[in-house]
Predict the structure.
Amino acid sequence: MQRIIAHIDMNSYFASVEQQDNLAWRGQPVGVCEHLGGIIIAASVEAKKWGIKTGTPVWEAKRLYPKIFLTPTHPDRYRHYTAKFLKVFADYTDDLEKYSIDEAFLDITKICNTIKNGVRQDPFAEAEAVVREIKLRMKTEVGDWLRCSAGIGTNKLIAKIASDMQKPDGLVVVRPEDKIKLYDKLALTDIPGIGFRMERRLNLLGIKTLKDLRDYPHSKLVEKFGIPGHHLHSMGQLEGSWKEGFIDEPIKSIGHMYTVAKEYRKPGVLEPVLYKLSEMVGARLRVNEMTGDVLHVHVHTLAKPMEQIMGEDVRGVSEGFGRTYKNIDCVGKSRRLGYQIQDGRDIFLESMATLKSLQLDTTDASMYLVGVTVASLQPTSNQQSLFRFENIKKPVMTALDKVNDKYGDFTLARVPAFLARDIIRDSIGFGRMKEFKSSPVKRTFYGH
């Protein structure tokens, strides 16, 4: 039986949802921002034509197209439409992987390997018909302004590559006999999981093209990169992946960072923001039943208001934390704690201690971005602590999580987190949905 995988990727998703809900914005450049003094986190198809893309500062977007429609995020609407299109996908297969908020993989092998009137049908023709039907239903049942690109192949990597080949609103089928043609069409960075930094490292080994990667000895890749070298070899064969997570790999770290809106950049804002971020990280650690003993915290401050540097080059003089950029000071540090951490309050206290060790003025009003991450994760241990307070704290946190699960995040929280309730708004990202615990589909499939 020929395996058939489809990858369906929503086009300019957040911006398209905003256009779906606002008729006047349809056909117009739209930029979605977490707040109107930050960066564009999603641009509409029309905005992209003007050079406005993810990561573009709002002030630059206005310079590129002064009449651009700017809007803060509406995560509840994005989740609403995601649930709707996942429900459509689930009508065609039980084997569905929610890869991120705007994309999914469908194993449609069973419904495409069919026999009609005693004749075995072309599975790829059947797959194309199925996906065209899904795309039509997306317009009629999910949103008439929402568009998606789709790719069909024999594995997840090829399906994802195919969906990227024709945007927006495209459909590309890669049959087994077409696989060899991809080597002449694709650059290394066209492979999900190979970014520009990895491309440079591969170039140093003499690997300049996808064919070079395919033919490079497996043993030498593993010798150079370790386990990732094995995945690089598979990617060169167009059979696997690495960074994009086409294999079911464990969560290695959990973190949050946030860019503070201009109106809240005042002395003393760092502590409540960091406290709420720490509580958010702690909640995610608990829901995933993980703890970690490595903490990383970082803070960015502006040397002068962004309005004063419009048109200036704000790129850094070098990479790394603790370096000074033309307009941005980046301070951060990672350290091993020596014990497992899971409670938001503990994460906050350790983060503040780390920042103070760097002699950072935590009352600085020019602070505009803060982030905290817990890494080196391992499953939670049920072993009782020798300290009575620790044993009391666990059931308290469990009760708090139950209340917030039922009534919404931060319905019940410690006082410092409430101080940031208006500063940190509901947000949502495009990343892989490793942590999703519930789904409108029956199960998730993994593999290549």
Observations:
- The chain has 16 helices and 14 strands.
